[in-house]
Amino acid sequence: MTDNKKHLHVKTGDRVIVTAGKDKGKTGNVKKSIPSESKVVVEGVNMVTKAQKPQPMAGIQGGLIKKEAPLDSSNVMVVCPACEKPTRIKHAVVDGKKVRVCKKCGEQLDV
């Protein structure tokens, strides 16, 4: 039996920088991660305009709304909270737990 579970290098709440696309260079926090599609939603990045129909029963007003669209997780890089630099991550076992570690300064990303 094969395990079709996908793993991402970023987690919800991580600060990331966009490395490709129209929003290259922008930073923000990951609001949502979608491992099944290898995508992440980053605050204030990849904004799209959506036409919203009014729904009087639910109290929703119509009009154009701006919202974040998912980005491919390969187009973002984690920003290390200790050295404040975009970095790749490596995995290490600390106290019997597998944690993510900054490749540049060696600081743990999972607290």
What does this structure look like?
There is one protein chain. The strands form 3 sheets. A 6-stranded antiparallel β-sheet has the order 6-3-2-1-7-8, with no helix packed on it. Strands 4-5 form a two-stranded antiparallel ribbon. About 0% of the residues lie in helices and about 45% in strands. By secondary structure, the chain is mainly beta. A hairpin with an 8-residue loop joins strand 1 (about 15-20) and strand 2. It is elongated and about 55 Å long. The protein has 2 domains: about 1-55 and about 60-80, SH3 type barrels; about 80-110, no CATH class. The two termini are about 35 Å apart.
Name its key features.
mainly beta, two-stranded antiparallel sheet, 111 residues, six-stranded antiparallel β-sheet, SH3 type barrels, single chain, elongated
What is the CA–CA distance across the termini?
A: 33 Å
Average residue pLDDT: 92
The run of helices and strands is EEEEEEEEEE
Tertiary shape: elongated
Query: Spans with pLDDT under 50 lasting ≥5 residues?
Result: none
Beta-strand content estimate: 35-45%
| Global structural class | mainly beta
Helix content: under 10%
Tally of structural domains: 2
CATH architecture of the largest domain: Roll
- CATH topology title of the largest domain: SH3 type barrels
Biggest sheet: strand arrangement: 6-3-2-1-7-8
- Taking all Cα atoms into account, the compactness measure Rg is 17 Å
Describe the biggest sheet? 6 strands, antiparallel
Highest CATH level, the class of the largest domain = Mainly Beta
**Beta-strand segment tally:** 10
